[in-house]
Amino acid sequence: MRTTVGIIGAGPAGLLLARLLHNAGIDSVVLESRDRAYVERRQRAGILEQGTADVLRAAGAGERMDREGLRHDGIELRFDRRRHRIDFPALTGGRSVMVYAQTEVCKDLIALQLREGGPLLFEAEALAVEDAGTDAPRVRFRHEGREDVLECEYVVGCDGFWGVSRQAIPAALTRVFERTYPFGWLGILADVPPSHDELVYARHDRGFALLSMRSPAVSRLYLQVPDGTDAEAWSDEQIWDELERRFETADDWRLERGPITQKSVTPMRSYVHEPMRHGRLFLAGDAAHIVPPTGAKGLNLAVGDVVTFARALAHEKETGSPELLDAYSQTCLRRVWQAERFSYDMTTLLHRTPDASPFDDRLQLARLERIASSRAAETDLAEGYTGFPFG
């Protein structure tokens, strides 16, 4: 099998890249190790930056998002039983975010790819990327019980942290930067309308909490818990009781309870692999970088990576110049490090570490007070949350 771009992974990054390349007249093949049902039901991020939503629209994948997604023009910060709203459009020149689950993005892009795009092979496990440093890289993969080879001009690894793509970059050429956090998020889905019409980020002495949503009828909520926590060790009643404590306010706001349909614990880490390119192999999304979910940046960073690659390859095809492809890693990493910084700032602003001192607590409150009282500080948060420019 032969193609111009071999794409490993049919998450939102790989699927969007295939769509962008199709629209640019560049052929591709997508290899996905899981089956279609798994890809379309795995729960991941649900906040799309302004730029991500705009890219999906331009790619022809925004119709259902605009019909069913929830546009949000702000978030609420809670601390010391107080409430403070950040108004995104007023601070960013009109930008907002969209609440639309990654599962739905994948469904939309899969439907488009199967109807209009190139091959999308499910249950096709990539085994190795070979000859990445040459002009003729190959992806060895297993599909329908036999091994095969995908010969490419370029390979883009969108196969996540545990995929094979990153392993093809010689260790002597790489640098890794990472930080692990001593806590995670206990997340739940609940069949109850959200108790607030925008996301609520709460800093409390007992730990962080987040009120989010999947739809007008389904709530998504999170609690900071110690690293290694077993989700099943928490009863439904305990979860709701703890959420009530951490979201408490001085007014009459109330948290609505409902049946919990799913619970899980997400570990927290920051990770960056440099470079994001080796020869004709390009890394995108979690294959190259991970952020704690506090800043809602993971999916959006992956989108920025594949937009940068698609633009660079289209430029090379149109002009013959590899300049933008050669700059892929440094171009992406500028945005990646800003998102890492923003996500780290949000995480340390709102989470309480196990060894936090009274001094640390006061510093957190002072930082929150600064945001609540300074338009400049509010603007910095709003600009980071709604998204850094692509490219």
Question: Order of strands across the widest beta sheet?
Answer: 6-5-14-15-16-13-17-20
Mean pLDDT score: 96
Globally, the shape reads: globular
First-last Cα distance: 32 Å
Number of helices: 12
Strand tally, please?
20
Approximately what portion of the residues adopt beta-strand conformation? 25-35%
Task: Please give the share of residues in helix.
Answer: 25-40%
Low-confidence stretches are none
Structural class of the secondary elements? alpha+beta
Largest sheet: 8 strands, mixed
Q: What's the alpha carbon Rg, rounded to whole Å?
A: 21 Å
List the helices and strands and how they pair.
Blueprint: E1 5-8, H1 12-23, E2 28-31, H2 36-41, E3 47-48, H3 50-58, H4 63-68, E4 70-72, E5 74-79, E6 82-87, H5 88-92, E7 97-99, H6 102-116, E8 120-121, E9 124-130, E10 138-143, E11 146-151, E12 154-157, E13 175-190, E14 199-203, E15 209-215, E16 218-226, H7 236-246, E17 260-274, E18 277-278, E19 281-283, E20 289-290, H8 298-319, H9 323-326, H10 328-350, H11 358-373, H12 375-386
Parallel strand pairs: 1-2, 1-12, 2-8, 5-14, 12-19
Antiparallel strand pairs: 3-7, 4-7, 5-6, 9-10, 10-11, 13-16, 13-17, 14-15, 15-16, 17-20, 18-19
What's a concise summary of this model?
The protein is α+β, with helices and mostly antiparallel strands and 391 residues long.
Task: Describe the protein.
With 391 residues, the chain is an alpha+beta fold. It has helices at 12-23, 36-41, 50-58, 63-68, 88-92, 102-116, 236-246, 298-319, 323-326, 328-350, 358-373, 375-386, and strands at residues 5-8, 28-31, 47-48, 70-72, 74-79, 82-87, 97-99, 120-121, 124-130, 138-143, 146-151, 154-157, 175-190, 199-203, 209-215, 218-226, 260-274, 277-278, 281-283, 289-290. The strands form four sheets. Strands 6-5-14-15-16-13-17-20 form an eight-stranded mixed β-sheet. A hairpin with a 7-residue loop joins strand 9 and strand 10. Helix 1 packs parallel to helix 6 (102-116). The model has no long low-confidence stretch (mean pLDDT 96).
